[in-house]
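Per reviewer request, we include the raw input and output of the structure prediction for the construct analysed in the revised manuscript.
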Amino acid sequence: MERKEVMKLEEILKCTDILELIGDEIAIKDTEYRFLYQNKSHRERFGDSPGEYCYGATRNSDEICENCPLQMSFLDGKVHKEEQARMTNQGIEYYEVISAPIRSSAGEIIAGIEVVRDITARKKALAEKETLLQELNHRVKNNLNILSSLLKMQARADKDQDCTNILKEAEARIGTIALIHEKLCRSESLGNIEVYSYVMDLTKNVLKISSADSNRILIDLDIKEFMVPVNTAIALGLILNELLTNSIKHAFPNGSGLIIIKMNEKDGDKVELIYSDNGIGLPEDFDINKTDTLGMKLIDDNVSYLRVRL
């Protein structure tokens, strides 16, 4: 290294007083991964190791650490960030490691700076939050299933067919939301739902509640695998529930037919839903804006919520 570059590094190291006060572990290393500087937090954890190779001083190793962020910074001249886990006497600790190159006046990489931040508390808090949300989803799912069972029992006991149909429709709507929470209980993600499996289970649920013959009413799903936020999934599920229920009740007088549901992700943040059946079709005088049934109101409300066109 030329003398002027050594002088530049010396000037950088003279300005390290402020780094001593920072709680993050900060180290400056040359391009051979030898320590040029360690702040107080770094020295307290790894010991004072001026001139020593970092991988030897911190991990008692003869080789550069796998996926070393600083090595990547030396190779491409960019800032890199990596999460790492370390086993200690207190258990697993998690760290966020950020590295950046230090360049000479000519643009040559002459050293690198590495910042290590302890994120163990954040990780533990997140894990506890996820556990609580999983428990909440589990309880909501159970409560909705209890409510659905009560409606089912009432529907069986009621002698009025119109009342029975209303109770079954309410049961299907509750089941649509309960299914979301069931999926969340089984998912690694607490905020997103995989669309294909959700719609597949939803169609089975609607057929079962409607007492439709699944051998005569066929449902063809043309859906790519992608995730949507929970609130979007609930709105889509309620729309599909009403469309399916309507087809099963009115589209097939002879009790047999085909329903096709196509759903694709568009432009990364949009969903295209195409629903069709080969039934008798809507009445000639049908006007969606003049229909005041609860089912159509639910469709209209959820379409408005999703801010989409019907």
